[in-house]
Design a protein that fits this description.
Number of domains: 1
Helix content: 40-55%
Shape: elongated
Strand content: 15-25%
Length: 141
């Protein structure tokens, strides 16, 4: 009986030690992809000819992230301005000096489930990784 228990515990630890680093790398790559996309959208959206991030830009962003393996329907975009105005309206772009903020979030998708093998509780099922950025608009009417 003791040898069976030792085998089960050892097998669980071995599985965790083999596969946990892989899942952590997936997490790091996803987080980096989200942050890179936030930086790119802010660079384009806050430049001198835009001053906004509209739905077409968000749709293109979802396509780029889908090419990296993320599910577009699970991505959440939150676009806002520091002065409270609408930051998604191409007809009323943010003027120079107004902050354009963007947040993209994506669910963890059970990446930490394997941690249960060693007794670590994974994040809740509705937890999301998030990338955030803020850039001042350069649009001059």
């Amino acid at each position: 009986m003791r040898s069976i228990l030792v085998f089960v515990l050892f097998a669980g630890m071995l599985c965790w030690m083999m596969f946990s680093p892989i899942y952590k790398h997936v997490l790091i790559v996803r987080q980096a992809a989200l942050q890179q996309e936030v930086d790119y959208l802010l660079e384009v959206g806050a430049n001198g000819s835009h001053g906004y991030i509209d739905t077409a830009m968000v749709a293109q962003s979802k396509q780029r992230l889908a090419a990296l393996g993320l599910r577009p329907e699970s991505l959440r975009y939150e676009v806002s301005a520091t002065d409270g105005s609408t930051a998604t309206n191409a007809a009323a772009p943010l003027v120079r000096g107004t902050g354009l903020a963007l947040s993209i979030s994506y669910p963890y998708d059970g990446l930490f489930t394997i941690d249960r093998l060693i007794g670590i509780e994974p994040p809740p099922a509705d937890a999301r990784m998030r990338a955030y950025g803020l850039k001042m608009s350069e649009y001059v009417p």
